[in-house]
Amino acid sequence: MRRYLRLFLSTAIAAAALAQTPRPSDWLSAGGNAQRTGWEENDSDFQKSGVKGFKAVLQRKFDSPPGHLMAPLIIGRLISYKGFKELAIVVSSSGHVRAVDVDLNQVFWERQLPAPANTCAPGITAMPAMMPAPDLPPGTPGRNAPRPIHVLSSDGKLYRLNPSTGEDVAPPVSFIPAGAAASNLAVVDNVAYTTTAAGCGATDAVWALDLHDSTSKVASYPLKGRATAPAVGHDGTISVQTADAGLLALSPKDLKLKQSLAVAGGSVTPVVFPWKGQDLIAGADGSRLYLADSPISRTEPLDAAVVALSTWEDSAHVRWIVAAASKYYAAFRVEDQSGQPVLTKVWQSNSLIAPQKPAIANGVVFGLEAGDATHHARLHAFDAATGSELFSSGDQIPSAANPTGLSFANGRAYFTTVDNTLFAFGQPMEQ
């Protein structure tokens, strides 16, 4: 009896101490958040001085089933039935979902989602998403409550998985046509958003699924051309860049058109950030970046097409945009010019092979050079203010990377490679 009492008391003391500690960081969607910023702004486990010591601290190769792996979601601290866990949620286009315990390098659970027969789509195409933890002070009940993992399967249904077990926390809900090629999910205020491209029984459209009650209402906004993945503003506004109508701003949940701006069609998901008390949107049309203010501010063309954007604010509260172009990274500072925001180019990296959307943490830009059929991937780290290279993984990665970008949380940069492997780079624990 005394042993059980001691166990109970030690568990209670540990839980009480946990409730008072800062929450580890999460990476909850493509770009880390619904604004698609690619910025991990609260990572206390990583400092710029430590990046030179980065090594591959996790390497987990999956045998089956086939299908390319997406960049993982990261749950910084899950209070599971097996104790406290930091999990990487890895989804394959084949519909296989795995939770990897990143400290033990072990699969914690796995789940195979169904796929429709004879589909013309390549399986799951949307990176999953979770809602952020409630913004509650330490010690508040519910602060560390588990949140479901939202996965949009190729059968067109949205699955909500228990992060501790992979089991359904609610029945799957029909969302988009089965087999549709969907863009990366965003989930805000219990509403899921995506876009679809024409083909496989689907149309070009923006979709919203309201999960507040059992009715699970679906709304859609039809398009005449493919749209990027949605970015969600701090007021809930949905922004997508389309092939035919430029940049669209839609109301949350019901997807009513609020505003459209004439920018050339493109495939770059916009990013949203605060500027002078309101949201400002950065996007790209071909080789030029733009800020969707009035009037629209555009950069001079780069000599390479822009493929992705990320944004962060430095310690001096200066806002930056970094573009992954097809051959390099280029960083721009957002400046006030006679009351209008403009982009000023500050630095550009050396030539790279297929750079992906970067992640930023504590003054460092992490960029994944995906490589190609004859060149392996490399992870790079750049000083965010100057562009000087602080780290390169060299030959540590034996194959090319999947073109799904990076995840960054708790001092580790995560990505997946074409040989079905999950990597994490960081400082070894002994250091």
Secondary structure: elements and pairs:
Blueprint: H1 2-20, E1 39-40, E2 55-61, E3 73-80, E4 83-91, E5 96-101, E6 106-112, E7 149-152, E8 157-161, E9 168-174, E10 186-188, E11 191-196, E12 205-210, E13 217-222, E14 231-232, E15 238-241, E16 247-250, E17 257-261, E18 271-275, E19 278-285, E20 288-291, E21 297-298, E22 306-313, E23 319-325, E24 329-337, E25 340-348, E26 359-361, E27 364-369, E28 378-383, E29 389-392, E30 407-409, E31 412-417, E32 421-426
Parallel strand pairs: 1-26
Antiparallel strand pairs: 2-32, 3-4, 4-5, 5-6, 7-8, 8-9, 10-11, 11-12, 12-13, 14-15, 15-16, 16-17, 18-19, 19-20, 20-21, 22-23, 23-24, 24-25, 26-27, 27-28, 28-29, 30-31, 31-32
Quick structural summary:
With 431 residues, the chain is mainly beta. The chain contains one helix and 32 strands.
Give me the count of strands: 32
How much helicity do the residues have? under 10%
Model regions low in confidence, pLDDT < 50 over at least 5 residues? 1-19
Helix/strand-derived category reads mainly beta
Total DSSP helices: 1
Shape: globular
CA-based gyration radius: 21 Å
Largest β-sheet summary: 5 strands, mixed
How much beta, percentage-wise?
A: 35-45%
Strand order of the largest sheet: 1-26-27-28-29
Alpha-carbon distance between the two ends? 41 Å
Task: State mean pLDDT (0 to 100 scale).
Answer: 91
